[in-house]
Write a structure and sequence with these properties.
mainly alpha, 3 helices, rod-shaped
């Protein structure tokens, strides 16, 4: 094996081993959650219509909650039961 091939093999091995250690950024309310809520929830829980008194169109209204109480905390999120 020539020096060039050996160097190439070592470099490829290092890339393969290090490539799996990339950690994804945690989800954010603005970038990950709000777009999903707008697509799936705001039709029935938005500014125009608020079933159960719940408005999911703004972070402030999410924290305020609806008829059954305030929104969940970030420390103890609740699973949606729909």
């Amino acid at each position: 094996m020539t020096c060039k091939w050996r160097t190439a093999m070592v470099a490829l091995t290092m890339v393969a081993l290090c490539g799996g250690s990339v950690v994804a950024a945690p989800p954010t309310l603005a970038d990950d959650v709000m777009p999903l809520l707008k697509i799936r929830c705001v039709r029935c829980h938005g500014p125009a219509k608020q079933e159960g008194g719940l408005n999911l169109s703004l972070p402030q209204s999410i924290a305020r909650g609806g008829d059954s109480g305030a929104g969940g905390s970030r420390q103890a999120p609740r699973v949606c039961e729909t």
